Fold this sequence. Notes:
By secondary structure, the protein is an alpha/beta fold. It has helices spanning 41-49, 66-70, 94-108, 137-143, 151-161, 181-196, 205-213, 219-232, 258-267; strands at 29-35, 58-61, 80-85, 88-90, 112-121, 126-128, 132-136, 165-176.
Amino acid sequence: MDRFVAGLYDDNFRLPGRRGSAVGAVDELTPYFVTTDRVDAEDALASLRGQGIPRPVVIIRNVRPLHAAYTRTLECQTPYCLVLDDDTILNPGMAQKLVDRFRAMRAEQPAGFKLNARVFCEAKMRWDSGGLKLFYAPHLKRVGWPNAPHVSETQTRIAREMGLRTLGCAIEAGTQRRGSDFDVYKKYLWMQIRIEAGQLTPIQLAPLVRRARGGETWLWFAILGLVDGMAVGSISSSKDEAFLGPIGKTLDFSAIGAEDVSRILAASRFERVMGQPMPGRGVRGAPSDRGLRRLGPR
Length: 298
């Protein structure tokens, strides 16, 4: 496997007195790949294996809830630990570039325990920092992985209370793909659950509805996830891929399309999505439609 050339700093970043990057930065890195075999998992894993990291990728497959999957990284024996989700495609050379940057930043800020880079999230339609995590392993072992709806947000808070810092950089590391319609539903379902837990800023549904009606029909699955998350309300545990909301658990996502979802939402016992106020909690189910399973507990 070809090795990528060291010394790839963006934004002309250099630590004063330092020429280029240290040789063998990726030799200090263990890569972890957390997967539930989503549609982009094969491409994501290939992008990680193509980084020229000497150590084999540690694959964590179908371990839930999410914090339990991430806990495997506490076994890391190298100074740095990179964690990639199975919907995120790394750009070539990113492992080397990110470790170089993190090492240089930690030389001035040794309390840095995590480095965030820029990742374009297709489902959110904006640059974000999800899907990719780079840690200084000794600090990570002190902080651990909390069991909370938004694991990373809670982890950052715990680290801050311990005097550790999350660092950020402007490196554009890759793309977090939108995935299937079912993936979109689950992403937005858990975004809303995290909103209910006070860990994210509320999302305005009306603009999403307008965009869905204007042709971006995949957004109906995002809207369904948000509405279902409102019905679920507060959950104390971390993300579980098998968990669905009260409408979602009645649907066969392999048999429905965006038009079906828009009709289900319009005909459900929720108030109209476009006519605020938005639905309250505790509403279960939706009327029959194509792809709608029998209502009731699964």
